[in-house]
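B., you asked whether I could sanity-check this one before it goes into the benchmark set. Here's the sequence:
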Amino acid sequence: MRISDVAKVTGLSVSAIRYFVRRSVIRRPVRNGRIRDYSEDDVRALRFVRNARSLNIPVRDIAAILQRPWKKGEMAAMIADHRRMVQSQIEALRQVESALAHFETCMCAGVPDCDLADSDD
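And here's what the prediction gave me:
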């Protein structure tokens, strides 16, 4: 399958597909003369990449997943680690949102009397 067809069926851009090949996230496609011939396995891997990226899984982790066979439960453990990281980021963002809500009510006339200038956080 040509790269343009792969792009259509995966929803990825041609440049994104080339990027994932260049970064060795997916294997280099077989060449048929000047044309790279992507297999159904390549398409499936690229769909996995697309969906994993939509979950903010880092490219290096996706590459690791695709480059070796996994024992039962290993991928679930990796996903659980990623989920814990996301939960930590959510908590950090909640703290930022809370601080912003506090400072949003600031009625100061400038930096000299602003609570934001007094905060060590």
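One thing to flag: Residues 6 and 26 are 13 Å apart (CA to CA). Otherwise nothing jumped out at me.
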